[in-house]
Every structure is written in C-alpha cells, then in structure tokens.
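note to self — DONT lose this again. spent like an hour looking for the file last time. sequence + predicted structure for the chain T wanted, 484 res
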Amino acid sequence: MCNNPFDKDWFSTLPQVLYENSILSHSSLALAPATEPFALLQEKCSSQGAHCSDYLCILLTEQHLLRGNLQEAQQSLERISTDADYAAATFRGWLNFLRGDNLKALECYTAALKLLRKVTGKRQIYFNNIGGLFFILALLKDNSPECLREAQTYTKIATRQSDYRFKSIYICLQKVLEIQQGDLSQKESIVNASTALKGKYYSLEMLFSALCLYWVDKDSAKGQLPKILGPLYEQAAAAGYAWIAMETAELLSRLQPQNSYGNLRQACDIPALVDLIQAQEPWELCLNALANLHQEPSAQTEGNQRLAWFITFHTEHWTLQPREQTMNAKGIWSLGRNIALKRLSKESPTRLKVIEIKAEHRRIAEIIGKRNRLEVPAKAKERVLAAIDAVCGIVTVHSDIGGGLEQTVSAETKPYLHLLPAREGLKVSLLSHPFAHGGPYFRPGVGGETVIAEIDHKRLQTTRNLREEKTRAQAVLAACPTLA
C-alpha cells in the first residue's frame, strides 16, 4: 500500500511506526527497484529531522552494504548514537568483513553477541538479522577448528527457532560446516536443495544456496546454477544492489569462464565470497576432522536410555542379567527390560567385557563413513600420522606406516596360550601380545606392524616383529603337535 505508487510527500506525513516500514527490506529480498524510498531514507538520515532514528540509520547501513557502498555505510554507522542496540555492532562486523578485515569483523561480532546476551538475559541466542549471516562467513573464513565449532553452535541456535529470518540459509551453512569438519554425508542434501531453487526464493537465499553448492560440489554447480544465477544477476544490477550483483557475477564467471558478466568486484573493491572456502578432496576433509578430533569438547553421552547390569549373588553361585532402562520425565530410571545374553557379543565364552561407546567413537564412525574406510594418496602420509596421533587415545590403532608418538616401547614376540572350556575339554588359542602390560592381542604374524594404544592413561607405540612372532608360534606348535 505504501509503495503502490510511492508518494514521497504523503509518506513523510506518516507516524514513525509506519515510517519505519519494510519497503526497502522487501526491495533487497525481491530485487524490486525502490529508488525513491531509498533516496528519501538517505535524506531523512542525513538531515537529523523528526523521522531520523537509530533504526533508520541501521536500515540505511544495511542498504548501503547490500549495494556495495562501503564508505556510505561507514558514514551511516557513525550517525548512530553510542547507546544504540547490538544491531549497530553487528553491522560494524559485517562492514569489516566486506572490507576484508576478518580479525576486526570477528572482534565486532563477538562484542555484539555479548551485548545481545546482556540485553536479553539469554545465553542460547543469536542475531536475527542479515548481519548475523556474515558472522558465520567470518568464522568459516578463519577456518580454525575453534571457529568452525563456534559457527556450528550459532547455526544450531538459528535453525532451531521457527521464526528466524533466513533460517534456510543457516541450514545450508550448517551443512557446509559439517562437511568442513568431515561429515561428507551432508553433501547430497545440499545438492538436492539447490535443484529446487528456481525463482521462488528470495535473492539472498538463492545466492547463499548457490555458493554453498559451489563450495561442496563444483561439478553439480556448473550444471545447475547458470540458468538460475543469470536472471538473479540481471535483477540485482537493475535494482541497484551492486554487492549481490557482484557476488552473482563472480560466481557465474567461475561456472562459465567464457562469458563476461562485468567487472563489478573491482568497482566495489570487495573480496568475493566464492573464494571463501578453498576446495578440498574428501580425504582431506576427513583427515582434518580426525586430526582435530582431540580438540573437540567431549559431548554429554548420557541420554534417556542405558544398559544396566544386575548381579545377583546366591549361596553357591551368582547370576548376571543386563537390562535396558529408560528414564522418565522425572529423571527416574525404570526397572528395565531384560536382554538375552546371546544378543550381546561377549569377549570369550567365560568372560564379559563392557565397552562404552562415547561421542568420540561415533564421531570417528561419521568421519570414516558408511564404507568404513578412507582412501588417502601416499603423499599424505604425514597428515595420516597426525590423524593417528589424534585418535590413538580413543581407539587402538594398527598401522603399517608407523606413528607420530615419541614414547615407544619394545614389542613382545613370545606367544601366549589362551585356554577356554569346550565341552569336556579345552580350546586353545595361540596369540601374540605386543605390549607387556595391557593392550590388544593378535594372531602371530598377522596385522599391522605398528600398534598404538592407550595403556594406564599413557599413549604408547610399539613395532611388532611379525616374522619373529610367526617363527616363535611355529616353534610352539612343533614342540606340541596336539595344539596344531
């Protein structure tokens, strides 16, 4: 109603609550020209008249940033009073990010988030404006494990809220973050989401979805995006949103090098988002994730279900019964449902071993993937060793290329006889035990040469002599033919 058609004189008579309307917000999202409202906004913010307010200056800053006018955005921010809300600090972070000063951007965003938490009294809260998107991008650009985890925390907050602006963008960025940390299963969902873009989404949703697809799958991007981004570029340029047009043109130039979409980036003097994430092979992402695993904070593993073991002592014997218990709403565990022992994988016919599956174990399984393997070129040996060093405190590692640990011990080669009851007699297993105290057993001469394990809270490494193990085992069998 206020823009059909737009009447500057009439619009200036409206009360403040109506004056601060969403004409320009809709313009930037739908890429609809709004020259007259934008000119009036500039006039009112510069005149310090009755309608001028911090909110209007922030709105003007947003428009300048989307239009690639960084100097004008700086001037608009300077008009905001010092006691303005967190949005001003958020937009300062956005401005510094577009200028290429990522460190300053992170500082501004961190300060803005502290102010937001102080004002709202909430810890689990995040920015609900356009500027918040660029905090995630700044953290992605830093690419340190700490920043990636921080970004993932914020995207989770945004995606859990039903009323968050740009929720679909946060969902897409969250998947990119998970891929950067080794969860390659998220790649397919990004590819599938991009196929449904067409023209029914707003400009920023289309642009960010296209960038996410390019970052994770360039081949799919080349096949899907040109027909979508061409019209987006033309609309953005016609509506005066030079930054959106520049980012779209830069992405199109990577997808179709033979076509020219102008040289807007040099005119805006803004680093392109398309280069924010450098392409990496899947194995590189997985090795990065494994190498950084020991730096990730341990997650709470306790849920609403658990396996409890009940021991009952009788006069001459005892019984053991596992039960699956469930916690109710009051936090009380149920009596539990009996589980048959045959459903469990016991260690031997006479011994039970309980292994706790922690969040770190599940994380390793996610990184390795459904195929339970990771193929790495020979040139990446040092990175594999770094990954081994990171996970050997969580799981026992068998390696044929050595390890990166300093504390090594000599390997035992003598064979061990394991005696197990078998009906009326005994079953004999001949095994090798490389570590003198603790650690895994192996079949003599079989398995990796290097074994890394955590024993008595120390990470130890030993190198097995496979030939010696096999020779000594054969000697035992030769001396006791009945064991063969």
